[in-house]
Amino acid sequence: MLFPHLWYALQISTRCSGLSEKLLLQKGYDVFVPKYMTRTRRSNALTESPLFPSYLFCRITSYSYGKILGTPGVIRVVGYGHTPVAIPDSEIDCLAQLASSPVLTMPCAYIPAGTTVRIETGPLRGLEGLLVRAGNARKLIVSVSLLRRSIAATLDVDTMLTPLIAADLRSNRATIDATLAKVDIVD
After folding, report:
1. Domains of the chain: which residue ranges?
2. What is the pLDDT of residues 15-32, one digit of tens each?
3. What's domain 7-87's superfamily in CATH?
4. What residues contact residue 106 under an 8 Å CB cut-off, 6+ apart?
5. pLDDT category, 114, cuts 50, 70, 90?
6. Do strands 7-12 and 74-77 pair parallel, antiparallel, or not at all (unpaired)?
7. pTM for the whole thing?
């Protein structure tokens, strides 16, 4: 059962992502596809790519028309078993703030545990996520739990952070290193 005014993740065919987005908008749904800038392999030109390939976020509205699953390219509403699960507004709000900020973002591995922080300064002020270190750079990881997908935003050196949950991840270091491809946890 889909409930009005809640966000859901839709799995879509990669070849129909633009068409699915357009048709859902025409049917009256709110659609959100967070994107980032990347370079093409052949021409090295900058292009926009979805942060979550094969997924888009759709909010059911009171004036929505048509059926979601009847939309070309839409494979399913993501959930557990055959039960659709809504995405928390807080996760969508974080993604929207990241997508509209000038901060460099990119897809990254999902991280199920870590140190949760709140950004206190800069364009991402108020965002909460997992803090990691990649080389000399600090990154904020924001996750969509249901999709088990995450995105990483590179933080400025002078960005102030407040720890919210301090978890001891040293015992899980091998799992984390494999997941993050040699990204060290920030102390």
Report:
1. 7-87, 90-185
2. 888 899 999 999 888 999
3. NusG, N-terminal domain (3.30.70.940)
4. 36, 38, 51, 151, 152
5. low
6. antiparallel
7. 0.65
